[in-house]
Amino acid sequence: MSDPTFRVGVIGVGWAGQQHLAAYAALPNVEIVAIAGQETELRHELGARYGAKHLFNDWERLVELPELDAISIAVPNFLHAPVAIAALKRGLHVLSEKPLARNAVEGREMVEAARSAGRVLDVAFNHRLRGDIQKLGEIIHGGELGRPYYAKASWMRRRGIPKIGSWFTNRDMAGGGPLADIGVHVLDYALFLLGEPRVTSVSAATYNELGTRDIGSMQWETAAGQGSAFEVEDMAAAFLRLQGGGTLVLETSWAAFRNPDDLIDFHVMGTEGGAELTAVGATKAKVGDLRIYRDVDGEVADYRPSAEPGLAHPGVVADFVRTLADPDEWARNDGSIALRRAQIIDACYQSATEKKEITVE
């Protein structure tokens, strides 16, 4: 029997939405039925390119289409919850861009809607699919480093504010700055690498020293201006206590006076070894520098494992579609992992505001 064909719609025609469209188009068992986006010319261009029969300015009309099986959400954060909940209530599966929502309250409503509908709710954590992170995961999960007890992870930008004055810098629309935007990627891949330990408490600080002075917009701006003031942080740091006694330090910035090349990294110390992953250039570095530090029979036995480029959005979309093809997997993909990320991010913001350590429920 041939694989079933899934009919999908994509909401949002910016960079992320275009990643989803290209990834769906590459799969033989997916038909792109509908596209929604407010950029009329671009919407029609993409509709023609991918053969979408229905093109809408508003997302509400797209989720009402009776022939859809699933949607992708690639719109500003404040729309994630209302779009996802409406789609799930219609019986559609949902793949959303990160973060899950502006906060854990909205995120929990999305997860509850997925459970009530018996449908999949997934979030595009594409950086855990980097080839170097997958390779390091094999090493850590295989026990080569023993028990990890200390880790540090970051995504740091010199000039990386998506656009000052856009929805990204509006607290109500975005929910937060780099901690919610790219920091959630760092949190996701770090917890994935550490074997999904439970975070018990956090102590965090946020800063907005540069964005408020109109310093730090990226050269390639990704969002239209809304006229908003800079209301979010431009840098954040957090100390996370993990169940079992381990700790994780997380740093992220949109703007900071540092090396001009963006940086994604992960450092871990375990009872039998350690590792460092450094991707200078961040997403432009398809494979980072990965080093393993070990002793064998009392002698230094460090080495540099090789890794292939990762799968990025095509991998996320392919995994989503594979899940749709197996109804036994639906209940295990209800957005719970993304909700845990949201709860931790919320606790970080609360800690920064109240200037104290916060227990994560």
What does this structure look like?
The protein has 361 residues and is α/β, with parallel strands linked by helices. It has two domains: 142 residues, NAD(P)-binding Rossmann-like Domain (Rossmann fold, 3-Layer(aba) Sandwich); 179 residues, 2-Layer Sandwich (Dihydrodipicolinate Reductase, domain 2). It is built from eleven helices and 16 strands. The strands form three sheets. It has an eight-stranded mixed beta sheet. Strands 3-2-1-4-5-6 form a six-stranded parallel beta sheet, sandwiched between helices. Strands 14-15 form a two-stranded antiparallel sheet. The radius of gyration is 20 Å and the shape is globular. The termini are far apart. The model has no long low-confidence stretch (mean pLDDT 96).
- Rg on CA atoms, Å: 20 Å
What is the spatial order of strands in the main beta sheet? 13-12-11-7-10-9-8-16
Helical content band: 25-40%
Stretches where pLDDT is under 50 for at least 5 consecutive residues are: none
Taking the alpha carbons of the first and last residues, their distance comes to 46 Å
- Number of self-contained structural domains: 2
The number of helical segments is 11
What is the third-level CATH name, the topology of the largest domain? Dihydrodipicolinate Reductase, domain 2
Main sheet summary: 8 strands, mixed
Can you tell me the CATH architecture of the largest domain?
A: 2-Layer Sandwich
Instruction: Report mean pLDDT, rounded to a whole number.
Output: 96
Q: Which range does the strand content fall in?
A: 15-25%
